[in-house]
Specification:
heterotrimer, A mainly alpha, B mainly alpha, C mainly alpha, A: mainly alpha, two-stranded antiparallel sheet, B: mainly alpha, 0% strand, elongated
């Protein structure tokens, strides 16, 4: 078995579908969604089986020896700077690989049904496979440039897929927003890479992990990488792109903007965890940012009306939990939550996609309701996801989320503020998720008659992934052994379950009989003014600054410098032109005069001042 | 004393090159300058009790012969196309 | 008074005056004949310095070959009328040239004062040359022993000059496109 096989299959899928798309775009014939989808899905399944093979191989090995390295070729070789294109598989990257390929396969399968009526399915599946290829690069790369390649690649794929329906200007704008926001974070990654090379001397991640660095430098690298992660994983201050990214097709939201890409920040923080542990300041910043994001986006989530935006803010909130886990040093818990979250959030997104598909692209939850009879499978699986995100035992969220909450209080880096904010976020999460569930599936129908008649359960390709993910959401929590055992852990667990039930009960009774549109606070619904602030401050401030620069610096300094240069050239040209008389004799005369001067000068220096100092 | 004569003749040749516009006379002035240099070579050769200077004169003479042959060839070619031997009339590159 | 000093005065006077005549004569033909005079005077000066071979060559090469070439070209081009180019130059031009040349003269003369202090170090003293069989003998030995390679190189120069001259003379006329005979 070869590690590269994991990468190879999505790449092949991307290439084949890319060519199919180019061909169909040329001939004008529509490619078949089934055909292209099957190619893409098979590629992902093949990749998943290779990963599963490695999982089996790893489970037979001692924990310390679980590491496979494979160098494919020399990538960059500039003197002493040498980077190999190398893959490295350890427990962490194997877990991510399994999630990417596993959940990815299911979502590809789901997409076949979801995109069946789309105009250019080949393009869609090509992008999706490209994304998986890049994401696998990110988690399997052994060096920072390799991770960066994946990091940028998933950003590109995300941009392409958010703006997939590129006839719609708003969706293209959302894609650009995501891309630009990610670029801001990428700057942090790049600078971190430069600093690493300067002070560690190698860009290999394993060398970086083992390096003992000056605390200030370790903190700088850690902080810069964390900044990069806030972009990719949608944390404050760079989280506003994720809700807008819901403009893309729903399976994309499930795969990229819930299960995989947005968790790459967690992956990277885990990779450099030894470095982060050296600098408690950065750890506390990460924890604070994480818990604040969780809390703030939970508040915003309560005021959303669009089913996908509710889930998007919920994703941001859950990512906040994962960052909190990293920030308090519970890296395992963070990764565990990545996995369970991938299951249940992908499940909920796909469920939402199923609803949207059934309602012909209606996304407002206040125009749904009573769907449990029409969509029994979707409803059943969605309830499983709901239970998982609430953290009700024995669903998977119960294990991962509660461990984070326990660690936020009991780990060496945790404190009560973090604990209380995490608990509050859990309460809000329970509330708005119940609101969503009740409004969509259980409350009286608020749909228009015409739409209501056409509601139908989704095809098999869409329901199978839902069922599989529902099972995973149920049992995913048992894949991990919690080391918890602190004596009041049990109290905290009870507290958090009670909090979740209180939030759920409140949401249930408030929205059970809802039959009109809720009037929500516009300020909260617009995302607490983050976007407005960015638009005002950067959107208007930067052009104003540029205007000022163009007026003062450009006109006074640059233009005048250039004018002076051109004047100088003209002037000296005019002066020199007067010497070019064209008469040979005149040139000779100049030669003689110059020769005289040179001769005097040479003799002067050779003969110790023959002329002016005497002998 | 020989060197004084050499310098004088050299500079007279130089003046001729600068003053005169007839290309033939310019070439003759160049020959004057070459001869002046030859004279200084021989003089130094005598002063140093060395024969290298005289050998150099032999080479200079050879070069002078080649130079005047080529130079006169050029004058003839120029005269053919421009019907003049006046250097001031030859300004095609400038115009 | 030493006879060689007398001869030097005579030849030097002829050389300087002849050179002046070369550059101030109005017709090219008279310039050419003044030049012949200068070459003879130079030959005499070489003889005074003991360079008998050079003196002979001076007469053969310069007076015999180069001057014939000059006169031949003058004849070919029909350059026998008086030229007026001397009068055409501006006063400023002449003045600057004269000043520059006089400046150079003073510098060079100053430098020749230094040359008076040269002490002879070479091996070829007059007595030795006489012992070895005269100027021609010695020069031949030095030329074909120490400078044989340079001598051969110069032959290539001559060859190049021949080729160049022929090419120039056979040059295609840029206006008519014909080859000159």
């Amino acid at each position: 078995m070869n590690l590269f096989l994991i990468l190879l299959f999505p790449l092949i899928g991307f290439t084949i579908n890319g060519f199919i798309h180019l061909k169909s775009a040329k001939s004008g014939a529509k490619a078949s969604a089934k055909q292209t989808g099957v190619i893409a899905t098979l590629a992902m399944f093949a990749s998943f089986f290779v990963s599963a093979f490695y999982y089996l191989q790893f489970s037979g090995m001692a924990e310390s020896s679980r590491l496979i390295e494979q160098s494919l070729f020399t990538w960059m070789n500039l003197g002493s700077f040498n980077v190999d294109f190398a893959l490295r598989l350890d427990s962490l990257s194997l877990l991510f690989t399994l999630v990417i390929t596993g959940v990815g396969s299911l979502i590809h399968l789901y997409s076949i049904g979801y995109m069946s009526e789309d105009e250019s399915p080949a393009r869609y599946f090509a992008y999706l496979n490209l994304f998986c290829f890049m994401m696998l690069n990110l988690v399997l790369g052994a060096t920072m440039p390799h991770v960066f390649l994946g990091w940028e690649g998933v950003g590109l794929a995300s941009y392409l897929l958010i703006g997939y329906w590129h006839q719609d200007v708003e969706k293209v704008g959302a894609g650009q927003k995501a891309f630009v926001m990610n670029r801001i974070g990428d700057l942090g990654f790049l600078i971190a890479m430069f600093i690493t090379y300067k002070y560690v001397g190698s860009l290999d991640l394993m060398v970086l992990q083992k390096a003992t660095l000056n605390p200030a430098i370790a903190a700088t690298i850690g902080f810069l990488i964390f900044f990069a992660c806030t972009g990719k994983s949608a944390q404050i201050p760079l989280f506003t792109w994720l809700p807008d990214a819901m403009a893309g097709p729903t399976p994309v939201s499930a795969l990229i903007h819930a299960a995989t890409m947005v968790t790459s920040g967690i992956y990277l923080l885990n990779r450099i965890s030894p470095l982060l542990l050296q600098s408690p300041e950065v750890m506390s910043v990460i924890a604070m940012v994480g818990v604040t994001t969780a809390f703030v986006s939970a508040i915003i989530g309560c005021a959303q009306k669009d089913i996908k935006k509710i889930l998007a803010y919920s994703t941001v909130s859950q990512l906040g939990f994962m960052f909190l886990a990293c920030g308090v040093g519970a890296f395992d818990a963070g990764v565990f939550h990545v996995m369970t979250h991938a299951f249940f959030k992908a499940l909920m997104f796909l469920g939402a996609g199923s609803v949207i598909h059934a309602l012909h692209h209606e996304q407002n939850v206040f125009k749904m309701g009573g769907l449990r009879k029409k969509l029994p499978i979707t409803t059943f699986t969605f309830v499983m996801g709901w239970a998982a995100i609430l953290g009700l035992p024995p669903f998977s969220g119960f294990f991962s989320k509660d461990e984070i909450i326990i660690q936020s209080l009991h780990s060496p880096h945790g404190n009560q503020i973090l604990f209380i904010m995490a608990l509050a976020s859990a309460l809000l999460t329970a509330f708005y998720m119940t609101r969503l569930l009740v409004l969509v599936f259980f409350s009286p129908s608020r749909m228009e008659k015409e739409t209501e008649e056409h509601v139908h359960e989704s095809p098999l390709t869409m329901t199978i992934p839902l069922i599989v993910l529902a099972i995973l959401s149920l049992v995913g929590g048992f894949m991990h052994h919690s080391e918890g055992g602190h004596q009041d852990s049990i109290n905290i667990i009870i507290a958090s379950v009670v909090v979740a039930l209180v939030g759920a009960a409140f949401g249930f009774f408030r929205y059970r009989k809802f039959d009109k549109e809720e009037i929500t606070n516009a300020f909260v619904e617009q995302g607490l003014g983050f976007d407005v602030f960015y638009n005002k401050f950067f959107g208007n401030g930067v052009p104003a600054l540029a205007k000022g620069v163009s007026k003062w610096v450009e006109e006074l300094f640059v233009q005048n410098t250039i004018r002076f240069c051109s004047w100088m050239v003209q002037f000296s040209g005019n002066v020199l032109k007067s010497f070019q008389v064209g008469s040979m004799q005149a040139y000779l005369l100049m030669m003689v005069v110059l020769g005289l001067v040179l001769l005097i000068w040479v003799l002067q220096s050779m003969m110790q001042g023959v002329f002016f100092y005497g002998k | 004393m020989m060197l004084v004569v050499s310098c004088t003749v050299f500079l007279i040749g130089l003046m001729g090159v600068i003053f005169r516009k007839n290309l033939l006379i310019v070439l003759m002035s160049v020959e004057l300058m070459l001869n002046a240099v030859n004279l200084s070579f021989v003089t130094f050769s005598k002063m140093h009790n060395s024969l290298d200077g005289q050998i150099a004169v032999l080479f200079v003479m050879t070069v002078a012969a080649a130079e005047s042959a080529v130079g006169l060839g050029l004058v003839i070619a120029l005269f053919r196309t421009l019907k003049t031997a006046d250097s001031d009339q030859i300004q095609m590159l400038r115009d | 008074m030493d006879w060689s000093f007398l001869a030097f005065i005579i030849f030097a006077t002829i050389a300087v005056l002849g050179s002046l005549m070369v550059i101030f004569q109005k017709t090219p033909v008279s310039s050419a004949f003044s030049l012949v005079l200068v070459f003879f005077a130079f030959a005499g000066l070489y003889a005074i310095l003991g360079a008998h071979f050079i003196a002979a060559l001076q007469i053969l090469v310069y007076t015999g070959a180069i001057m014939v070439l000059f006169v031949f070209v003058i004849m070919l081009l029909g350059q026998d009328e008086k030229t007026t180019d001397l009068k055409e130059s501006s006063f400023l031009f002449k003045g600057v040239t004269t000043l520059g040349v006089l400046g150079l003269l003073s510098v060079l003369l100053n430098a020749t004062l230094d040359a008076q202090q040269i002490t002879a170090k070479g091996e070829y003293t007059e007595e030795k040359i006489r012992e070895m069989g005269g100027n021609l003998q010695v020069i031949s030995e030095v030329l074909f022993k120490d400078y044989a390679f340079h001598f051969e190189l110069v032959s290539f120069l001559i060859l190049g000059a021949i080729v160049a001259t022929v090419a120039l003379a056979k040059r295609k006329n840029t206006y008519t496109g014909d080859y000159h005979e």
